[in-house]
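@channel sequence for tomorrow's demo:
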Amino acid sequence: MTELLLILICALPFLTFLLINFFSDKHEKIIARIAFISNVFQGVLIGTLILQWLKLGRVPVNFKEWVVYSSLNYEFFIDFYFDEITAVFLFLGNFISLIILKFSSHYMHKEKGYQRFFLILMLFYSGYVFTAMAGSFENLFAGWEILGISSFLLVAFYRDRYLPVKHAVRVFSIYRIGDVGILLAIWASHHLWNENITFAKLINAELVHHQLSEHSLTGVWVSLGLVLAAWVKSAQLPFSSWLPRAMEGPTPSSAVFYGSLSVHFGVFLLIRSYPIWEFQHSIRWLIAIMGIFTAISAFLISRVQPTVKTQIAYASIAQIGLIFFEISLGMIHLALLHLIGNAFLRTYQLLTSPSLVAYRIKEQIFNPLEANKKYRLTLWKKIQLYYYPKALMEFHLDEHVGNWIFRPLKNGGKKLHFLNSPSKIHLIIFYWLFSFVLLLAKIPSLEFVNKHFLPHLLALVSFLMALKAFSERKNAAWAISLIILSHLFMVTAISFNDTVPLNQSLYFLSGILIGGIIALVIIYQINTKFLNTTNLHDYQGLSTIESQKSLWFFIGILCMSGFPITPSVIGEDILFSHIREDQGLLALFYAVSYILSGITLIRMYARIFMGTNQQEYLPKSKLTT
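structure tokens (generated this afternoon):
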């Protein structure tokens, strides 16, 4: 009975997502009722599951549903896990989603893209439920990816406007920084446990203590990767600025994504991984210091912001910083209670924010404040005057992240002049074929070079191609080609460690190659019909006149990004398992290249298909007549 409830709870939001696809904007009432009734029914299922779990004595439930892939040393499986943490997040998500769905049915009335809004909302909720019920880090990462994509789509909901699209790309890019951490944590976790560890096994204190005592350094790397992912996901300092930028979407999406649910998944990750870093005092100190500094800075920023959504965003960040501090002290139940209160409060504030602005404007008109005639420049006033402009500018967090992370990557890619021209692709392919021949030949005299030098060299080339694609602005097709070649080089690099079976390589490359072909075909079709579409400097807004091509291109880049609609998400994890424990640099090259490729593809989609459609992008036939 419990297993059936877990499956139904996880499957219902996705089935609702598929059902809504059959309706259009003119069927507003039907769409809203389907989504609302589905969530009500799921709420009943969640309530039944929680009652049954309480009746059984609150014993954690682990359900290994489906082994997707299995080999001699590796197994990838879908695993559901239910405990008090899952119960809190499922209850919170369902209750708030019901409020948001009811509110949205009226708020979004007659809005262009009504059906699209509910589709993305149900896609987000599917990822939320799957992540909350994930029984392993691999399953959690799959749901994590769904949350990232749906966040991008919701922020860029008004896709014909410049700022929402720009901020959506910004939010997604910062999200992917956290993905580097979780990918490296998964890799290190493979070597720490010698398996895809489940959360059910992590509650075995004896097993965790034994493994961490023998592999203490690997345990620290796992913890640091998870902390980085949680750090970014919950908008902690210095990544706090993405949260107010994400408020460009409709008010209901701001409430459900960034006020209450999505932003708290960093907290979820820390609590879920608590048994790993519980006795690592350096990690606990890091989380505590990070939380306190974030709480102080976010509080100062929230007090002086001119927009109500920005004030609410930073107020939420400040509270999450305090929750991080509570978790570092081991106060898990207090942190969960604090999380529930913060989520409900921010949902209420964001949903009422439009009315609140109107009330405050009226209050300023009819009850003006009298000027303070006596003004003394005390020490406290001096401190206020010093920090006021800094807080008003949000301590320049956006500039710091850009200057320290994204700008060096862009500048580095621009300096790779040998990758500027598509005419040099034959040299790249020749180098790859030469490496592939060395891999197959297995020459004994070159064993040391093949084992210790060539994998890192190929991984470096893969990283450089991903870096060049990231900085490419002139030719979209060339950027896509570089990403495909980058993945080919990375698969070859890892194959030198341990001969990777062909079917495992194909698991990874299947989505990459299929998605790449789809994306290149769409680019070619658009280039033959429109002018200047290879220019990625501006937002071109072609989705308004090429909606079908926009959809297919988006599907193509999702496949290339390892989104869980192709076997690539399994192949990615398989390849990580073949990277040795002493090859941290290779794992870093792999993770960063993978993440850069995803950012590049999403930004490319935004530049070509989102934004305001310009007059110069008329069909070539009309321009020549």
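heads up for whoever presents: The chain has two domains: 2-361, 416-624.
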